[in-house]
Specification:
By secondary structure, the chain is of the alpha/beta class. It is built from 21 helices and 16 strands.
Length: 494
């Protein structure tokens, strides 16, 4: 039998020091490339083995510094491990060229010398870190993990800024199920597009009935993930049922477990696991979810081993998690894990322009379901809806539309019908005060109609005048979010 070479022994020994610290990695298609540059092929093999054992599969090596830039022209690298002392070209000279042509690429310098001057020089030239070869076996994986995480955050922040500053959606088709003309909702869409490609958790906040699951589904579509979207309402699950639902069980795990059962985490493999009502989790279930997020693995009930999790976790709640955390009812570490990215779905009362659109759409859906003609809706009825506070949000508006269709007579829905329906449901209709006693009457006295932009500008100016320049209060008067008002003013000032 042929004995192992010294090179094999060196690589194996170095790899053994990090095998116990192997990080759980996401799908390979999402791992960044790593390029190791050194003229010592034995050393290249050693570093590549260490990183492979640690879970980094996309590791490339290069022993010729003159071809590094050529390779960077055809492939995007998240991190370059660069030897300081190279033949033909100095490592710090190559570092300067890399940073000039690829400023977003992270670079860590490697050297056998422990002199301080070269380290300072390289850090000043743009290197993110500096690692002694003698310490590489112990510190390499930690350093690589830290630098890749930092690069990922910088890339996400850059994409987020570009997306939020852009007025156009890159993939509007993923939001086709959400009916809106509201600026605040479009702002949320752009945020979703910017965070969708990442693997980190997303927390969706908002009142009951605002459409948080629709937002989660849009996020899944925008992510391009290959697996399915799996939704679970965890609010009513006790600890045992929570674990069984998410992680599944093996045959014989408990009385009645006559066969293996796949959990929702496994069903959502390579896709999105959406956990609704996350604010209602018990303390023990919170610990189980935290371990899933921290380790990217889970243990089915009755199993001796763990299974990897490749699903992206998205959660939602109508509760104030910050308040629950302050009262000690929600774990702080879980809270911060869940809200790596976070967005709030605005309530329907802040989306006044969407109410007529949604009401007509729900009427059309209800009419199609029972093969009836869509009734006409008079302007007074729409005005009444626009002034109603809708504590049940979009879900309540949908119920009103379906009930109005059933009650409509002579193919007409008027304000009297809607007011009687709302009075039955709530006891009294909570309406915002109308702007005028006769909708649109002031327009009929105008000889020339102003432009839509001029009307909007005048409304904003008047709202700011009434609130002494307080944009938050002005936004409330106009029925939009503060961010939407700020963006509109910013566009006018350009």
């Amino acid at each position: 039998m042929q004995s192992d070479s010294p090179t094999d022994h060196a690589a194996a020994a170095a790899a053994a020091t990090v095998a116990a610290h192997r990080p759980t990695s996401g799908p390979l298609r999402r791992q960044p490339r790593i390029l190791v540059v050194d003229d010592d092929r034995t050393w290249l093999l050693t570093l590549r083995t260490i990183l492979r054992v640690a879970g980094y599969e996309r590791v490339e090596t290069c022993d010729d510094p003159l071809v590094v830039l050529e390779r960077m022209a055809t492939a995007a690298y998240g991190l370059i491990l660069l030897d300081l002392h190279l033949p033909q070209v100095d490592g710090d000279e190559l570092l300067a060229t890399i940073k000039a042509t690829h400023p977003d690429t992270m670079v860590c310098m490697l050297t056998a010398s422990d002199e301080a001057a070269p380290a300072v020089r390289c850090l000043q030239a743009g290197a993110e870190d500096y690692l002694l070869k003698a310490e590489a076996s112990e510190r390499l994986v930690i350093t690589v993990r830290k630098l890749l995480a930092r690069g990922s955050v910088q890339q996400e922040n850059r994409a987020l800024r570009e997306s939020l500053l852009s007025a156009e959606l890159r993939h509007p088709e993923v939001f086709c199920e959400i009916i809106t003309l509201d600026d605040g909702m479009e702002h949320a869409f752009r945020y979703i597009e910017s965070v969708a490609p990442t693997d980190e958790a997303v927390l969706i906040l908002g009142e009951t009935g605002t459409g948080k699951e629709l937002m989660a589904r849009a996020l899944h579509k925008a992510s391009g993930r290959e697996g399915p979207f799996v939704a679970v309402n965890v609010g009513g699950l006790d600890d045992a049922l929570f674990a069984d639902t998410l992680f599944g069980h093996r045959r014989g795990a408990f009385t009645g477990a006559n066969s293996d059962r796949q959990g929702m985490v496994a069903r959502a493999a390579e896709g999105t696991l959406f956990l609704d009502e996350i604010g209602d989790l018990s303390a023990l279930s919170q610990i189980k979810l935290l371990r899933l997020l921290q380790e990217n693995e889970y243990q089915p009930l009755g199993s001796d081993g763990s299974e990897p999790c490749s699903a992206r976790v998205v959660t939602a709640t109508h509760r104030d998690l910050r308040e629950l955390r302050a009262r000690g009812e929600f774990r702080a570490d879980l809270y911060y894990r869940l809200r790596t990215h976070s967005l709030t779905v605005p309530p329907l009362r802040e989306r006044g322009s969407d109410i007529p659109l949604l009401f007509r759409a729900f009427l059309a859906d209800a009419a199609e379901a029972i093969a009836r003609r869509v009734p006409k809706v008079d302007s007074a009825a729409l005005s009444l809806l626009a002034r109603y506070s809708f504590p049940g949000n979009v879900r309540e508006l949908m119920a009103v539309a379906h009930d109005a269709l059933a009650r409509a007579r002579d193919g007409q829905i008027d304000a009297a019908l809607l007011q009687s329906m709302l009075n039955e449901a709530t006891g009294s209709v909570r309406l915002r005060p109308p702007e005028t006693t006769d909708d649109g009457a002031y327009l009929r006295d105008l000889r020339h109609l102003p432009s839509l932009r001029q009307v909007q500008e005048d409304l904003v100016i008047e709202a700011l005048r009434r609130t002494d320049g307080n944009r938050a209060e002005a936004a409330k008067l106009l029925g939009v979010t503060r961010q939407a008002l700020h963006q509109r003013i910013h566009r006018w000032q350009e």
